[in-house]
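Budget justification aside, the reviewers requested a transparent look at the raw inputs and outputs of the sequence design task funded under Objective 1. We therefore reproduce one unedited record. The lines immediately below are the structure tokens for a 304-residue chain.
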């Protein structure tokens, strides 16, 4: 089968089986083309709540599929490829954070959505990269424990100086490996290009950017800008999608190291198998875990 033929078969099966396909913006072009919706983590959670279909197939990583299940508990939710996990989401567990909460009861625990559902059960509010600044600013408490991404947390602290933000040492292994040396090299190669980066990058990289935002915010900025050349400081997929969307503009990856193997684990064939019923993994969470974890997701949607 060609890619096109497989895409046509997926489109037919989606209708037949009442399936909605959600794809994170880091997914490959062939998947994005057959998805009902593509976006950043925040937009995907909003869509998860409103999708009318009985089954949702998530093309992304495990915590994203779990978020869909939390928001649509009566739907069948499938993670297209069960091996796709986010290493940052596994960095901190419930026991660690519960212990810290006992010691510092006057802190509000803000969890980046890239966390396990189990950990979310002991957190106060979730944020995504596109909603973190707005939500932290809106919280009534001055003392914030921000987990697990210390780079995103440090970025939020700069934007919201009136809060006292404590950080733990976690983060995205893909974005955090980009250095100022990479920035200088890319700028030397493309002196006219604007630098757009994800806030999961280290402070030195973020400070040198012309724009800092979530995956979707980067795409929106590049589309609306009068500029025609951009260095993209996030997963390689974003520069690729942008090139298709705006073929008359030029998009250069900040580093060729910016590949998330987990986001790339899902193939078009995985999507086909998940819809057909011969692949993927159905997400199941206990009633108790869902009730507790949903509190901080609902609060995110309310404030974000
Ligand atoms: P966004 O919230 O920008 O979609 O980012 C998710 C993610 O995993 C970035 O690495
Ligand atoms: Fe997780 Fe980083 Fe991959 Fe995003 S890019 S899914 S934060 S490892």
């Amino acid at each position: 089968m060609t890619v096109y033929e497989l895409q046509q078969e997926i489109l037919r099966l989606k209708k037949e089986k009442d399936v909605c396909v959600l794809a994170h913006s880091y997914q490959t072009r062939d998947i994005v083309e057959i998805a009902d919706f593509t976006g950043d983590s925040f937009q995907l959670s909003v869509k998860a709540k409103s999708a009318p279909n009985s089954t949702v197939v998530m093309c992304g990583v495990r915590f994203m599929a779990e978020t869909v299940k939390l928001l649509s508990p009566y739907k069948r939710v499938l993670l297209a490829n069960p091996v796709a996990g986010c290493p940052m989401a596994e960095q901190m567990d419930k026991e660690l954070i519960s212990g810290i909460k006992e010691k510092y009861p006057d802190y509000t625990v803000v969890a980046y959505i890239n966390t396990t559902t189990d950990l979310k059960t002991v957190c106060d509010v979730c944020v995504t990269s596109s909603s973190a600044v707005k939500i932290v600013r809106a919280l009534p408490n001055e003392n914030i424990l921000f987990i697990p991404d210390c780079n995103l947390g440090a970025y939020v602290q700069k934007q919201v100086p009136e809060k006292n933000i404590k950080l733990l040492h976690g983060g995205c292994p893909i974005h955090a490996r980009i250095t100022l040396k990479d920035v200088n090299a890319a700028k030397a190669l493309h002196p006219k290009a604007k630098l757009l980066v994800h806030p999961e990058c280290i402070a030195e990289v973020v400070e040198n950017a012309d724009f800092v935002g979530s995956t979707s915010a980067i795409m929106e900025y590049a589309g609306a800008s009068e500029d025609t050349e951009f260095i993209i400081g996030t997963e390689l997929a974003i520069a690729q999608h942008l090139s298709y969307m705006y073929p008359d503009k030029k998009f250069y990856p900040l580093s060729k190291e910016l590949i998330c193997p987990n986001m790339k684990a899902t193939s078009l064939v995985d999507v086909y198998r998940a819809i057909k019923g011969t692949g993927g993994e159905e997400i199941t969470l206990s009633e108790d875990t869902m009730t507790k974890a949903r509190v901080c997701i609902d609060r995110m949607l309310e404030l974000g």
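The CA atoms of residues 149 and 171 lie 4 Å apart. The first strand starts at residue 19 and ends at 24. Computational costs for records of this kind are itemized in the attached budget.
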